[in-house]
Amino acid sequence: MTEISATARAAPDTTPPVHLVVSANPAPDGFDHAIVEAYRTTATEHGHTVVVRDLYVQDFDPVLKLDERPGHGSGATRADVVDELRYVREAAAIVLVYPIWYGFPPAMLKGYVDRVLGSGYSFRDFHDQKGQATLAGKLLVSFSTSGLPLAWLSEKGQVLSLREIFDVYLWRGFGMKQSEHVMIESVVPNMSSAYAAEQLERVRHTTKRTCALLDDTLVYDSYEY
Predict the structure, then answer these.
(1) Beta strands, E only, the chain
(2) For residue 158, what is the enclosing H or E element?
(3) How far apart are CA 88 and CA 81, in angstroms?
(4) Residues with Cβ within 8 Å of residue 160, at least 6 apart in sequence
(5) Is 65 exposed, middle or buried (0-12, 13-18, 19+ CB in 10 A)?
(6) Starting from the edge strand earliest in sequence, which strands make up the sheet with 93-99, in order?
(7) Residues 85, 134 contacting (CB under 8 angstroms)
(8) How far apart are CA 29 and CA 152, in angstroms?
(9) How many angstroms separate the Cα of 81 from the Cα of each of 33, 72, 77, 122, 225?
């Protein structure tokens, strides 16, 4: 029997996991940007790599054109989507940060889902949970903010509907690994610094847990609201 030398054995991949943080809030000084920064700082301190794509700053076009839909036109991917897909491919976790407007994420983020995350993926693929090549097996983490209290949103059915429409639906349809959603309520201009600090600590806690999942040091399969 031929012995395989240590140098011939495959070396373990020591490349730090990449977190792709997609920010969809037009207010540059808003609390959502503090969430992004808390996530970035915490994951970086953990030794991971964080890439932030601020859709409003980069003037992302959220409008899905007819020729971008599978089965229509040439099927060629537009240059701006090609750029975004490069970040998606390299990421181990997709992190969405956005406000809740009228019960839904902003149109900017929905357009990112339509044009980037759903690029080349038909409704039949989604139905069959075929698995989007750029997303399959990756973590989906969401942080949403609302000026209204969660109790009121729950009473109106918004908490459940947002979870089902924009979390479970996406991660199952795209074949992602699992999903977590942290909802932060009562985010208003005059909120106390103590409350803001408490919520950012929730963000840091979730970030650490996400890093542990990517490092295979934590088993986690539930949701947080």
Answers:
(1) 18-23, 49-54, 93-99, 139-145, 178-184
(2) helix 158-163
(3) 10
(4) 154
(5) exposed
(6) 49-54, 18-23, 93-99, 139-145, 178-184
(7) yes
(8) 26
(9) 23, 17, 7, 16, 31
Question: Using an 8 Å Cβ cutoff, are 203 and 182 in contact?
Answer: yes
Q: What is the mean pLDDT of residues 1-12?
A: 51
Torsion angle of the four alpha carbons 170, 176, 179, 183, in this order, in degrees rounded to the nearest 10 = -40
- Alpha-carbon distance 159 to 151, whole Å? 9
The total number of residues written for the chain in this structure:
225
Token reading at 24: 């969809």
What would the pLDDT profile of 105-155 be if each residue is shown by its tens digit? 999 999 999 999 988 777 777 777 777 889 899 999 999 998 666 666 666
Radius of gyration of the chain (CA): 19
Backbone angles phi, psi at 196, to 5 degrees: -60, -45
